[in-house]
Amino acid sequence: MKIYDFEGFPNPARIRIALAEKGAFDKVEFVSVDVPGGEHRKPEFLAKNPGASVPVLELDCGTTISECTAITEYIDQTFDGICLTGKDAKESAVVHMMQRRAEQGVLDAVGAYFHHATPGLGPDIETYQNAEWGNKQKERALDGMRYFDSVLANNEYVAGENFSMADITLFAGLAFADFVKMEVPAECTNLLAWKGRMASRPSIAG
Length: 206
What we know:
The protein is built from 8 helices and 4 strands.
């Protein structure tokens, strides 16, 4: 199987962490897509993912799967090791709920700020920007950080007692925030402590 991505970007990082957690990093072939150069918008890539985003998983049969949650589900069910998407119906539901909150409330909000309220990937890629919207999303991201600080006051991990893809998504969002120089509010001590713990995991520390 192949993973089409651009190393260092937040969503590709989520899949690389998931693979590392499953001990399956060497089971896939990584194919670099030059996103800053616009390769993701060319017909050859759009045939794999009309959404023009990375990562994309391509199976040996030719099936292509985009969206990080879908790719993570496939990885989780294909390889042995730690369970990333929940061991039973209840845990799976909570993981998916918290993952989506991390995605919408932090990762995507930071992304909107980056693409709309900063130079982003440059004028050739950022063909439409709305700075007011981008700055509003920065506020949303900070609110999201405060929400997860409250969650982590009582939980070791984002979705409860076990590490899951919800933790991966939130960590990727905070790493993206670091990149765009958006600081976690100082009062979010639970979130900052969690971030430190996550950074020391072998799948993240590298």
